[in-house]
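Example 9 (inverse folding). The structure is encoded as follows.
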């Protein structure tokens, strides 16, 4: 994929570029938003920008892609690219925006590394960028074509359900009354809202119900941060949106979907609000008559904080062969465990395929425990809410 001359240059300069990626991405975003403030106002997550997590994710993806090109020159990192493409497609990223990113990213590289960016170095990293960008553009185009093109569609909230003190579920139907395209359990939609300052901010929320004929359902946790601004969209949805209100939704995207037949044993592990795609998966498995063993694992602060708990248990109970294991940090009732999720006492059937969703420390721990129990790394799939800071490790 990468030319021999560029590969040699990238290999020689990767340590220097990698060591400076934090500074490069900070300068990149600062320059791009100064030139294009509409991108920060209406496309990029302002909370992630304030917290710095989007910069970390961008740096990790660039480093991971360049490293992959050097280590596996004949194999494209489709798993990594596919995850990014789904997120971009749901946001409505357009090909011309890659040119904007290129302009400001390379200005930042030159600004940080100075004279070290010779014409040869610039050309080599330019090749890396466009290999990644063009691959993503092609993947995103295909995803849009599969869904009839990207558009924001108006959906009316027909019911709002309080799940916990900080989680609400919104059930919606399209305002135009037209047909609803099917989705796969585990996928998410982008939700665009108009905020008080005129910004139209976008967030992605997992669909928390089984694929239905004419409705969508997603559940939102109100984000409360100690060291960063509270989640402005989650607070808007909780404080302002009720039945009868209208939201703009994208089609469904996401690659955390069950790709297994009814005879494949599964393990579905979640923590906190990571329960949302897992509940949709359980609903789908119950409706489709999954026969193989399904191990359901969840960790939460307390039963009162466990969103969708009733659905979580009810869908698992409908399966032919399911076991449920819940951990709570406090107030654990009979039949559950106290503390953090620990798979040591949980039997894992050979050939199990696992799906994880929750905070990164939780998913790291569960992944390590599953591998220790003999689950193949290729059979462990995950979803990260927000910028994927685990990306570089999962190539």
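The amino acid assigned to each position is listed next.
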């Amino acid at each position: 994929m990468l030319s021999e001359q560029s590969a040699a240059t990238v290999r020689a300069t990767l340590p220097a570029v990698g060591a400076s990626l934090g500074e490069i991405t900070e300068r990149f975003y600062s320059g791009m938003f100064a030139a294009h403030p509409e991108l920060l106002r209406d496309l990029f997550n302002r909370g992630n920008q304030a917290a710095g997590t989007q910069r970390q994710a961008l740096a990790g993806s660039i480093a991971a892609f360049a490293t992959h090109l050097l280590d596996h020159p004949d194999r494209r990192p489709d798993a990594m690219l596919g995850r990014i493409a789904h997120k971009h497609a749901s946001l409505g990223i357009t090909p011309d925006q890659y040119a904007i990113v290129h302009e400001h990213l390379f200005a930042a590289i030159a600004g940080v590394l100075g004279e070290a960016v010779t014409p040869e170095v610039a050309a080599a990293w330019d090749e890396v960028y466009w290999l990644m960008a063009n691959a993503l553009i092609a993947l995103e185009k295909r995803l849009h074509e599969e869904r009839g093109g990207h558009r924001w569609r108006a959906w009316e909230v027909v019911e709002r359900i309080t799940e916990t003190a900080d989680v609400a579920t919104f059930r919606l139907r399209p305002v135009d009354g037209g047909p609803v395209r099917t989705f796969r359990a585990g996928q998410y939609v982008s939700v665009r809202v108009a905020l008080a300052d005129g910004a139209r901010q976008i967030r992605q929320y997992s669909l928390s119900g089984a694929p239905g004929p004419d409705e969508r359902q997603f559940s939102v946790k109100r984000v409360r941060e100690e060291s960063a601004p509270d989640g402005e969209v989650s607070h808007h949805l909780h404080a302002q949106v009720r039945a009868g209100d209208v939201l703009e939704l994208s089609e469904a995207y996401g690659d955390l979907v069950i790709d297994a037949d009814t005879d494949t044993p599964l393990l579905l592990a979640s923590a906190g609000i990571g329960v949302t795609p897992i509940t949709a998966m359980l609903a789908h498995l119950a409706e489709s008559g999954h026969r193989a063993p399904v191990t359901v694992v969840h960790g939460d602060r307390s039963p009162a904080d466990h969103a969708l708990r009733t659905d979580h248990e009810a869908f698992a109970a409908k399966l032919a062969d399911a076991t449920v294991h819940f951990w709570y940090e406090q107030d654990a009732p009979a039949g559950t465990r106290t503390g953090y999720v620990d798979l040591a006492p949980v039997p894992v059937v050979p050939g199990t395929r696992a799906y994880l969703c929750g905070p990164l420390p939780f998913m790291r721990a569960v992944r390590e425990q599953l591998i220790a129990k003999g689950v193949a790394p290729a059979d462990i799939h995950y979803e990260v809410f927000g910028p994927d800071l685990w990306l570089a490790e999962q190539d």
